[in-house]
Specification:
The structure holds two protein chains of two kinds.
Chain A: E1 2-4, H1 9-18, E2 23-26, H2 32-38, E3 45-48, E4 58-61, E5 64-68, H3 73-77, H4 80-85, H5 87-94, H6 99-102, H7 107-112, H8 120-126, E6 130-135, E7 138-143, E8 148-150, E9 153-154, E10 161-167, E11 174-181, E12 192-200, E13 206-214, E14 221-222, H9 224-230, H10 237-250, H11 261-286
Parallel strand pairs in A: 1-3, 2-3
Antiparallel strand pairs in A: 4-5, 5-10, 6-7, 6-10, 8-9, 11-12, 12-13, 13-14
Helix pairs in contact in A: 5-8, 9-10, 10-11
Chain B: H1 23-28, E1 43-49, E2 55-61, H2 63-67, E3 71-75, H3 87-95, E4 100-101, E5 107-113, H4 116-125, E6 127-132, H5 139-143, E7 167-175, H6 178-183, E8 187-195, E9 207-212, E10 218-222, H7 227-238, E11 245-249, H8 265-275, E12 279-282, H9 285-291, E13 297-306, E14 312-322, H10 330-337, E15 347-354, H11 369-386, H12 391-398, H13 417-426, H14 428-431, E16 438-447, E17 452-460, E18 466-470, H15 478-490, E19 497-501, H16 518-545, E20 552-555, E21 558-561, E22 572-573, H17 574-584, E23 588-596, E24 602-612, E25 619-629, H18 636-655, E26 686-691, H19 713-725, H20 736-747
Parallel strand pairs in B: 1-12, 10-11, 14-15, 18-19, 25-26
Antiparallel strand pairs in B: 1-5, 2-4, 2-6, 3-5, 7-15, 8-13, 9-10, 9-12, 13-14, 16-24, 17-18, 17-23, 20-21, 21-22, 24-25
Helix pairs in contact in B: 3-7, 7-8, 10-11, 11-19, 12-13, 15-16, 16-17, 18-19
The chains are: A alpha+beta, B alpha+beta.
Chain lengths: 287, 748
């Protein structure tokens, strides 16, 4: 196995593109190293991207933030302005693993691991985050929801890797929230989850919303019917009921050791409703 | 000796909380655990395990693996000695499949190689040809007359008829006229309750270092609760005499009963014998879950009758326990414990053992009791709810006490159940207000406690300090407690005494650290050993003074003349007698060997408040208080630790822990991610109230405290959740999907 720690994006993409065997990108390594140690994964090449300039920076851009691919959960949690703008995203990232794992784990890694239960992904999808991808043919931007294509699979091509994730600007009276269900209180994996991002007008009526669901299908779902249930409402009970119903209807979960289909359908709706209320309250505080 | 029958009441050291002797080693990493030993020329061993729940092994081809550079030995069941019966045979066959793999993860072959990577590569080169057989992992399925037979030849005469050959034994206890008892009841409730198999969840995996010499003598270092029993098992399996194998117990990172038997040690020894090198073997977590000894799962039918004013008129239970592919005695224990907390005129409990395609169960704190008492206490609580009676008053009304003929036969001597219930009743917790979706549950708990074979040696060093050699691994603070009892008896400070856990060849036989026996039995032997040393020190003082040895007494660490008639002499301290001992007859020591009985049963009562989220079925434990009779708490920190630890493990068992098998008979959650033990943030502080009702069978009144505490949490939490949601829960764990389903079911 070869290990490389290039200092430029171009060098990293060249190494990844030229590798004849299995190549993997190493950022935090909190999934990759576990797969290598216990999952039987034996890559021929590891490309550590942490030495590339900008990978560990959170940079203001057009009123939003560009988050480097190697920024850890702990660094996100300490970034006050990012937390103020996208609190749902930051709280989702902070749910990943233990304190020790937080020191290493990255959103880009969470995304590329392509688990439908990844905590940061529904929050990023609700936030309409855009991944910037470097590859042999240069850079391209891609909405986060189009990166995972199936459990463990992504749309990234050979030689490509994510260099940053962009979170756009948003109006003052807008916010987001993420909730997951786990049988414990921490150190666990989502049985189901929901991210809600919304914008209110001065009357408190929802003018824009994105609702995403995790662990209830092969990839994270962006549920337009659920967003429509909120838009035009003040998140009254009937709107929330419609939101929950839309979420339950959109779910396509499996029965497994972590939960039943019935449980996931029911609790996804509960989480979406609760997340919407939290996002509404946060948006109110920012207006 | 008059002293034998006196229960001491005034203590200087007992009941204080000195620093633990192993603390600094454990926090600095100096403590040597199972995997911390190495030897020159050491090889690394790995096991090949069956991927099938039940399969005939048609052939094992190890040629390619043997040819791999760095592979030093490969063994299969054929390399183990021939045995036709007994527990050692079952242990051997549970470790390594003979002609059939009996569970997912059953060992099939083992490799010793120069390093782990080579050993793993060799495993991949071993070709095993299987013929997959029908399997059965659940109790009801395994009992059916046409069920696949898991492991033939174990059916005992007492096994109930009309079932498959998997139903191997039944043990029945009780007394009185059940029909007459039920006829007196105003309300009778019958229910079937189920519990899942759980794992002890010790953090340290099984690990050992084995070395067999060409002369047939062996050394074994391992993480165990009983080095003597490991020696017995390994000697039988290897066909050697016990004197030829020395077993040393490492420090232990949790056992809870799960390290009372062998899972890897015989394999490492046989590999070492074949390779001619020391062999180290360490299980990974998946192996621990799949191929160590989880607890039984159970299905229990309970029928209890009660009068309107809360008197239990009759109780009946059939307890069906599966403990994997080999027979066990847990059904015998569980049937005895089920109704032990109650004074009943008519009671009957029968415990049945069923074989399944799962790993062989091992002990887990009070084996058999948590499930049994869960089932009984859940039905008692439901009767209290139905009859609108206070659940604590009902327990008090029916509580076993001194003179009660217990449900399993013996008549109780001094026991602490009533005192424990009364302490719970007056505790502020019992009257604290509850909010919406919150409820309180309670349960009694019981465990027999054991004594057993014990040897202790106590040496008086020339400098006046004391060394104690004992043979039970310290899993709950026994080194501190033993030192404290010796210091108390000798009349010297705690820090003058050091207790070590010796290997099998440095002290007489000791039974396994189980049955909450160590503080009781080793403590008793320590006190007797100290008394033997005191007798000798009095003799030396008599010699130094030139008086009769009967004229010397021992008081607060000094030899003194017994009275004025004995003469006027300055008292001689232990240190002074020790310093002179070379000139008064040589070194001074005391020892004691005993098969201790009179362990003294222990009762506990747990109170718990929970809040259930009605929309998700999530249970939060809000408040928890443990009341338990310790007889006498030698070191209260450790006693509280046992009470808290049992409660926490019980919370895990009640809410989330379970062995989940798929339709293919494979274990689906062999890791701590999906086998959910509680994490710190899941728990409130576990409050403790120690009761001290002295055990007449121990010089200081000690009762074992290590196991009773895991018995009540299952029912206490189940009762609390049932009351919070308004539906009686009848299955553990009460995982959120199960609770939410019950809530939705009640809404119709």
């Amino acid at each position: 196995m070869q290990y490389a720690a290039p200092e430029t994006t171009a060098e990293a993409t060249r190494l990844l593109a030229d590798s004849p065997g299995t190549a993997r990108v190493l950022a935090g390594g909190t999934d990759l190293l576990v797969q290598m140690k216990f999952g039987g994964l034996a890559p021929d090449l590891l490309v550590d991207i942490k030495n590339i300039k900008g990978m560990r920076d959170v940079t203001p851009e057009d009123g939003g933030f560009r988050v480097g691919a190697a920024v850890s959960g702990a660094e996100m949690g300490e970034h006050k302005a990012m937390r103020a703008l996208w609190p749902g995203v930051v709280e989702a990232v902070e749910l990943i693993g233990s304190t020790q794992v937080q020191g290493r784990a990255t959103m880009a890694g969470n995304l590329c691991n392509a688990s439908p239960a990844a905590d940061s992904v529904p929050a990023m999808v609700a936030a309409n985050a855009i991944a910037r991808i470097a590859g042999p043919d240069g850079e391209r931007d891609c909405p986060v929801q189009d990166i995972p294509t199936a459990p463990g699979k992504t749309s990234l091509q050979k030689g490509e890797f994510i260099t940053s994730i962009f979170f756009p600007a948003r109006p003052d009276n807008a916010s987001d929230a993420y909730l997951r269900f786990i049988p414990r209180t921490e150190m666990d994996i989502a049985v189901c989850s929901a991210g809600v991002s919304l914008t209110l007008d001065t009357n408190g009526t929802c003018t824009d919303a994105r609702v995403s669901l995790g662990a209830v299908a092969a990839t994270v779902l962006l549920v337009q019917d659920a967003a429509n249930a909120l838009i035009g409402s003040k998140l009254d009970d009937s709107a929330l009921e419609a939101l929950g119903a839309a979420c339950s209807a959109a779910c396509n979960p499996i029965d497994d050791k972590r939960g039943t289909i019935e449980f996931r359908r029911d609790v996804t709706a509960v989480l979406a409703k609760r997340a919407a209320k939290i996002a509404q309250s946060r948006a109110g505080e920012r207006s | 000796m008059a002293l034998d029958h006196d229960t001491k009441r005034d203590f200087k050291i007992i009941g204080t909380r000195p620093l633990r002797p192993d603390g600094i080693d454990k926090v600095t990493g100096r403590a040597q655990y199972g995997a911390d030993q190495s030897a020159a020329g050491m090889l690394v061993a790995k096991m090949l395990r069956s991927p099938h729940a039940h399969a005939k092994i048609l052939s094992i081809d190890t040629k390619a693996a043997e040819a791999l550079s760095g592979v030093k030995a490969i063994i299969t069941a054929a390399d183990f000695g021939d045995m036709r019966k007994g527990e050692a045979m079952n242990v051997r066959d549970h470790i390594m499949a003979r002609d059939r793999a009996l569970y997912d993860g059953h060992g099939v072959a083992a490799v010793a190689a120069i390093n782990e990577a080579t050993a793993k590569a060799a495993l991949a080169l071993i070709k095993v040809e299987y013929e997959i057989l029908p399997h059965v992992t659940e109790i009801a399925d395994a009992m059916r007359p046409d069920a696949p037979v898991v492991n033939a030849g174990f059916v005992q005469e007492n096994a109930p008829k009309g079932y498959s050959e998997n139903v191997v034994s039944a043990h029945e206890f009780g007394h009185g006229d059940l029909a007459a008892g039920f006829a007196k009841a105003d309300k009778i409730i019958s229910r079937t309750l189920k519990t899942a198999a759980t794992h002890q969840g010790y953090i340290e995996p099984h690990a050992c270092l084995a070395s067999m010499g060409p002369d047939g003598r062996g050394e074994l270092w391992c993480c165990t609760q009983g080095q003597f029993y490991i020696r017995t098992l390994c000697a039988e399996i290897l066909g050697i005499e016990e004197s030829q194998l020395r077993v040393t117990a490492s420090e232990i990172g949790g056992g809870f009963g799960g390290k009372t038997t062998a899972f890897i040690e015989p394999v490492a020894l046989v590999l070492s014998r074949k390779a001619g090198h020391p062999v180290k073997m360490v299980m990974d977590r998946e192996e621990v879950f799949k191929a160590s000894g989880p607890t039984v799962s159970s299905e229990i039918d309970v029928k209890i009758g009660m009068t309107k004013d809360g008197r239990i008129t009759a109780g009946q239970a059939e307890l069906r326990y599966q403990g994997g592919a080999f027979p066990n005695m847990t059904n015998w224990l569980g049937a005895q414990c089920a109704f032990a907390a109650y004074d009943l005129e008519a009671v009957n409990a029968i415990g049945i053992n069923i074989l399944t395609n799962r790993p062989k169960q091992a002990a887990y704190r009070a084996p058999g009791a948590p499930m049994a008492i869960y089932a009984i206490e859940a039905v008692v609580d439901e009767l209290c709810e139905e009859l609108d009676l206070d659940p604590l008053d009902v327990r008090l009304k029916n509580a076993a006490r001194k003179g009660t003929k217990s449900s399993y036969g013996p008549t109780f001597d001094e026991i602490g159940l009533v005192a424990t219930l009364e302490a719970a009743k007056i505790h502020p917790h019992y009257a604290a207000p509850l909010g919406p979706n919150q409820a309180r549950g309670l349960s009694c708990g019981f465990w027999f406690n054991f004594g057993g074979n014990t040897s202790v040696s106590l040496g008086i060093n020339f400098d006046g300090t004391v060394g104690i050699t004992e043979g039970n691994p310290d899993i709950g603070g026994s080194r501190a407690s033993i030192s404290m009892m010796a210091a108390e008896e000798l009349g010297i400070p705690y820090d003058k005494v050091r207790t070590i856990v010796a290997d099998t060849n440095s002290i007489g036989h000791n039974d396994v650290t189980d049955g909450s026996r160590v503080t009781f039995a080793v403590g008793l032997a320590t006190i007797k050993a100290a008394r033997a040393a005191i007798k000798e020190m009095c003799k030396r003082a008599a010699k130094m003074w030139g008086i009769d040895e009967d004229a010397v007494i021992w008081e607060d660490g000094y030899a003194k003349p017994a009275g004025q008639n004995a003469g006027e002499f300055e008292p001689l301290s232990l240190a002074k007698i020790a310093r002179k001992s070379a000139n008064t007859g040589g070194p001074i020591a005391g020892h004691h060997e005993v098969n201790a009985d009179g362990a003294g049963v222990s009762f506990g009562v747990h109170l718990v408040d929970v809040e259930v989220d009605p929309e998700t079925g999530f249970t939060k434990v809000l408040r928890y208080t443990v009341f338990q009779d310790a007889g006498k708490a030698i070191h209260p920190d450790y006693v509280e630790g046992q009470m808290q630890g049992g409660a926490v493990q019980g919370i895990g068992w009640a809410l989330n822990e379970e062995y989940i098998y798929g339709a293919d008979g494979k274990l689906q959650n062999a890791g701590f991610l999906d086998y959910r033990i509680p994490v710190a943030s899941d728990l409130p502080k576990i409050d403790t109230v120690i009761l001290e009702i002295p055990n007449p069978g121990h010089p200081y009144g000690v009762r074992g405290v290590g196991e009773t505490s895991i018995v009540p949490p299952l029912a206490a939490i189940s009762n609390a959740v049932s009351r919070a949601i308004g539906v009686r829960m009848d299955q553990l764990p009460m995982s959120p999907p199960r609770v939410l389903k019950a809530i939705k079911g009640a809404k119709g």
